[in-house]
Structures are given as structure tokens and as C-alpha cells.
Design goal:
By secondary structure, this protein is mainly beta. The protein is 2% helix and 48% strand.
Length: 247
Amino acid sequence: MAQQRGVNSLQFNQDQSCFCCAMETGVRIYNVEPLMEKGHLDHEQIGSVASCSMLHRSNLLALVGGGINPKFSEISVLVWDDARESRDAKEKLVLEFTFTKPVLAVRMRQDKIIIVLKNRIYVYSFPNNPVKLFEFDTRDNPKGLCDLCPSLDKQLLVFPGHKCGSLQLVDLSNTKPGTSSAPFTINAHQSEIACVALNQPGSVAASASRKGTLIRLFDTTTRDKLVELRRGTDPATLYWYTLIIQP
């Protein structure tokens, strides 16, 4: 039987210079400008993959198994070090995070990895000797919505709030590990959140609801609404967007 070549998910790296495709046939990594394939991991190495996350342009990839013929579990995040010289795929798997429920999304920055489940978000130190720093309960988040600021100056995390249509903002640099911290809340929409994103400096957060008619931008310091962009009046499903706004 011929292998299916479907794309299960796509994710850009922190500065949008590369993106990786998690596929039924493995993982493919592309450079954006110029557009060209940068590397790939075959099905024989890693099986089918539900999601893949890159750390900038480094050799580290976070993989979550899924699809038709996975080699890895959907409840685990495996960190692949492509710089390791070995023909054995197991030798390139340098870290593993395992949970009791499926992993829906992974975000990384130089010093932290964020792992999103349906009702909880975990924050670990990364990549050397990872330690759990925080965990946050969330409302049902079946799409694993969250974004993490890659800036060295701001460690901001954003995800759907407990109230329908709200966002929660957490400055990880001002939160002590092992303690619970009340995130700042932005009442962004009247219906459920469908997309959320931060710009690279972490100064602006953008959100869209499931209606798909409005995208709203908020100042992450004052939590004031900066602008409202109307896509149209007909409902539409928004899957992803990115912010390139500078402070």
C-alpha cells in the first residue's frame, strides 16, 4: 500500500525564517527565503508525526507522534538532536516528556519548553537537565492554543483564559518556579478563541474568535486594545497567523 503524504501540522520557527511540516511520511524542514528544503526525517526513522517544533535554526526538534503509523506516543514529547552522528534513531532522542493525556502543542525558546494538553500547560527549563517550573490549568483547549515570546528581554506566555473569549498572559520571568501565579486576563472576544499569537518582542498579542470575522490586537503591558481588524461579515475558520509588528 502506498504511503499517504498528508501534512498533519505546520509550524514556523521563532523568527519565521524556517518552518517544519509534520507529515504521515515523517518531517520536512524548509527555509523560507529562498524557499527550499533544508532537511528531513524519514518515516523509517520516526514514523508518522502529529506535530514538530523547531528551536530557532538549531539541531533540536520536538516531536509528538500521531497520524496513521506513528512510532512515538501521542502522550509524549521527544526531543531529537540532529547533530548526533548515529544511524540509530534512538541515539538521537535526547529528552522525553511523558504525560497521561495527548500532547496538543509544543513551544520552545532558548531556556524553556512549553507543553500544552487539553486542560493544562506545563513549563520546563530547557534543554539541560529539564525541571518543571510551572503548570497552569486552562479551560478546554482542544487545539492546544498558546504562544511564547522568543525575546531574551521578555518571557511572555499567552493562552486562552478560563472565561470564554478571554486570554491569559503570564510573564514567566516574574513568576517564581513552583508557585501559582494569577495570570493577567484580557477579555478579547465574546465567543471561543480560535487563534492567538505574540509578536517577537512580546509587546503585542493578537487573537481571533471562532467566528473568524475579527482579529484584535492588544498591548501586553497595559492590556488595552490597540486595533481591530475586520476580515468580513461571513464566518470563517482561522487556523493560524503570525505577527511581525515591532514595538
